[in-house]
Specification:
Layout lengths: L1 E4 L4 E5 L3 E7 L5 E8 L47 E4 L23 E8 L22 E7 L5 E10 L4 E10 L5 E13 L5 E6 L7 E6 L3 E6 L12 E5 L11 E6 L5 E7 L5 E7 L6 E3 L4 E3 L3 E6 L2 H16 L14 E3 L1 H4 L5 H14 L3 E4 L29 H9 L3 E6 L3 E2 L4 H5 L19 E2 L5 H18 L3 E4 L16 H19 L4 E4 L9 H4 L4 E3 L6 H12 L7 E5 L13 H8 L3 E4 L8 H23 L1 E6 L1 H4 L1 E7 L5 E8 L21 E5 L5 E6 H6 L4 H4 L5 E8 L1
Helix pairs in contact: 3-4, 6-7, 9-10
């Protein structure tokens, strides 16, 4: 619910458990009033009536002025601290006053209230255009507050879209240049947040290739802590998601936690700024390091969304709210016979670049016999692709591997009852390719400077519309000709020499180009699913999830490493988006040898995939794979649609315990992996959650054998007996069904 008091000129945004309030002051500035949890006994008409500042914000205390909590902080009103927007105006719209000096540009933007409206059809920038509906299409209210600079002809609209059931507000800006000259924006965050003083314990993730999503918690000091990506994808090093709480005031299931995420896959920045007064601000949006947004006369620009929320139920509660929001309001609804993500087989580790019809057909028959539902041919099927030195950009079937095209293999895969998928890397080109030889100018580079290759490849210039159109036509032809149901969409290098015909706008234009390709393909081929991959987990965010179905979280498939990676991933993103593979007993990244049960127990926590070389498995091993896949299919509805609880985290006692439970409490999945154990230490029982106290539950193993029976009350107060979980160093997945 959105309300406005015309007497006090105060806005109140009410959600299920929280509120957000701000006020128009006597100078028509928007001042933040408060954001937090509503009292449990609050009535629907209980509101914040006006601003009660804790500090004077105006002279004679001039140093205090810039602590004023403006809803949008502009360079002009604010120069000593971070600004939401910083603009440069090349001309003066009015004659100079006496004594004025005409030094330009003017770097001063001050925004004042004009009007507001509440609508139900607002969309942030780069919202999906593929037309595939999301799970929940119920209209939502958006407050649009229109502001203008008193002198310059620039308008800014602040947008607040409410998803009340999850206590989430999406924030974005709409910018309009109504003047006669181009205005440049050197800083453009999507919004700035004001959090209560002392909200300084930051939870986020860090990492690198094959070590993504490592959870990290730190206490912020006075000053600014920056998380960012300076490339064309989201980043392996960190992710545009955060949680904030007062130190010592939150845990997994208790305490007030603020959270936020960017719906954007490019060069981004989050700046966490604690002022000397201990006021806490969060700024998030385009990374200003090399970006400059130019608004031509009459031009409008709408930023993507900054998704924000607050909850009273700890880090787990924040995760569950964001998971539900992503499942219901972000992910495309599947256009196929099942709402669940299929079990996938990818033959990369079985074949590498040594591809042939006979080899892939043999793998497909073994995969189908195990219960696989989607067969994906990885790198090496196209052009002159005999290694990673050549062929990228030539998305035509490799004649020496498939002399009759892919039709025969696709027909065989379909005959076996599986869908067919392909690996692609549409944003890249090898210098040793027909495309590059024909169009060497089509890559990111600065004239007269070296073109740095990484993994023997260069990045196509998506600032050129003809490049995007060319790639679309190739991919569109592939999908149509071969009845492709799935693309593993990869992107395997960072940007260097980001020279483009689009200039500094390339950081935004590249993302827009990728999004448009995916949107157009899905609009024309509604049955096509897409997996986001960027050397593993380098492109994961709410923006890419609006046009993809799942993500490849990491190239690291070592099950013990994946526990930590998947735990960090779960802070923000739901299990139904997390592709997780079972690969060889002897892991080729870490060299560790791990049991099949452990590998499946970890992979079954998300969307199950198989990446082993099936030709190296015995008949007994293939049968064991089949048993696990059949078990996963039984628990899949709970894992992919259930509410997730992190009952025990690695940082506590060296074990990871995860529960998924259907919203009605009828079924649950309990997954435990003990990574470390100290003799003589008794780990506390992992108490289950979300069950029905009065109900009785049968606990089933992977063969559907009942090994224990208890009431929901007992399971939520005492947990499972140790003998049902297994000995030290064990992993196990159990299925709970209400009887």
């Amino acid at each position: 619910m959105i309300s406005f008091n015309p007497t006090t000129r105060t806005f109140n945004l009410h959600l299920q458990n929280s509120y957000y309030a701000f006020q128009i002051d006597e100078q028509d500035r928007l001042l933040h009033t408060g954001w937090g949890i509503r009292p449990r006994d609050a009535a629907s008409d209980d509101v914040v009536s006006g601003l009660s500042p804790h500090l004077p914000f105006d002279p004679p205390w001039s140093f205090i002025t810039q602590y004023r909590p403006d809803e949008i902080l502009t360079f002009g009103d604010v120069t000593a601290f971070q600004a939401t927007l910083k603009a440069s105006f090349p001309t003066l719209p009015q004659p100079l006053a006496a004594g004025e000096s005409a030094h330009l540009p003017v770097r001063d933007l001050r925004l004042r209230y004009l009007s507001h409206v509440i609508v139900t059809d607002a969309q942030p920038g780069l919202a999906p255009t593929h037309g595939i509906p999301v799970e929940n299409t119920t209209p939502r209210e958006t407050l649009r507050v229109r502001l203008k600079d008193p002198v310059q002809a620039i308008f800014v609209t602040l947008c607040y879209r409410l998803t009340p059931e999850h206590d989430i507000i999406e924030r974005w800006l709409e910018l309009e240049n109504a003047g006669a000259e181009t205005v440049t924006l050197d800083v453009c965050y999507f919004s700035s947040l004001h959090l209560p003083n002392g909200t300084t314990e930051l939870t986020h993730v860090t990492g690198t290739w094959a070590r993504e999503f490592t959870p990290h918690r730190e206490r912020l000091g006075i000053g600014t802590r920056v998380l960012e990506s300076r490339s064309l994808q989201t980043s392996h090093n960190t992710n545009p998601f955060f949680m904030l709480n007062r130190p010592g005031h939150a845990w997994e299931e208790t305490g007030t936690v603020y959270f936020g995420a960017l719906a954007y896959s490019g060069s981004w920045q989050m700046a966490f700024e604690q002022l000397p007064t201990l006021h806490m601000r969060v700024h998030a949006g385009y990374n200003p390091s090399d970006d400059q947004l130019a608004l031509a006369p009459g031009e409008r620009h709408t930023t993507p969304a900054f998704v924000t929320g607050v909850c009273p139920d700890g880090w787990g509660g924040a995760s569950r709210r964001f998971h539900a929001f992503t499942r219901e309001r972000v992910l495309p609804r599947p256009v196929r016979d099942s709402r669940f993500r299929p079990v996938l087989y990818n033959g990369w580790e079985a074949s590498y670049f040594d591809l042939s019809y006979a080899g892939q057909a043999e793998l497909s028959r073994k995969a189908a016999a195990m219960g696989v539902e989607l067969f994906c041919v990885d790198d090496g099927w196209f052009g002159a692709r005999r290694s990673d030195h050549a062929g990228l950009g030539d998305w035509f079937v490799r004649a020496d591997a498939f002399p009759e095209g892919l039709e025969a293999l696709v027909a065989e895969v379909h005959r076996l009852g599986m869908k067919f998928g392909l690996w692609v890397e549409p944003e890249m080109v090898n210098p040793d390719s027909d495309l590059y030889r024909a169009h060497p100018e089509w890559v990111l580079h600065f004239p007269g400077r070296p073109r740095t290759e990484s993994r023997n490849q260069l990045i196509l210039d998506f600032g050129r519309e003809e490049v995007v159109e060319y790639i679309f036509n190739l991919l569109d032809t592939l999908v149509g000709r071969y009845a492709i149901s799935f693309f593993k969409w990869d992107m395997n290098r960072l940007a260097t020499e980001p020279g483009s015909v689009a200039g500094q706008a390339i950081w935004r234009r590249h993302v827009a180009g990728v999004y448009s390709l995916m949107d157009r393909l899905r609009a024309k081929h509604p049955g096509l699913d897409i997996q986001s991959c960027s050397g593993g987990g380098g492109r994961v965010d709410v923006g890419i999830l609006g046009r993809t179905d799942q993500v490849w979280v990491s190239d690291n498939t070592d099950a013990l490493d994946r526990i930590r990676i998947q735990e960090g991933y779960s802070l923000a993103y739901p299990a139904r988006t997390m592709e997780a593979w079972v690969t060889h007993e002897h892991n080729h990244q870490t060299g560790r040898v791990l049991s099949l049960g452990l590998r499946f127990d970890v992979a079954m926590r998300g969307v199950l995939g198989i990446g082993s070389s099936l030709n190296q498995l015995s008949e007994a091993e293939l049968a064991e794979y089949a048993r696990y896949i059949a078990f996963y299919k039984r628990i899949r509805p709970v894992v992919q649609d259930g509410v997730q609880y992190r009952l025990e985290r690695l940082e506590e006692f060296g074990a990871s315990v995860v529960e998924y439970v259907l919203p009605d409490g009828s079924e649950a999945v309990f997954s435990v992996v003990v990574r470390e154990y100290l003799i003589g230490v008794a780990r506390p029982a992992a108490l289950l959650k979300g069950l029905r106290s009065a109900a009785t539950y049968a606990i089933l193993d992977r063969d559907e054998k009942e090994i224990y029976r208890a009431t929901g009350y007992e399971l939520m107060t005492l947990g499972l007996p140790l003998e049902t979980i297994g000995p030290v160093g064990y992993s196990r997945t159990l299925h709970l069904k209400r009887v």
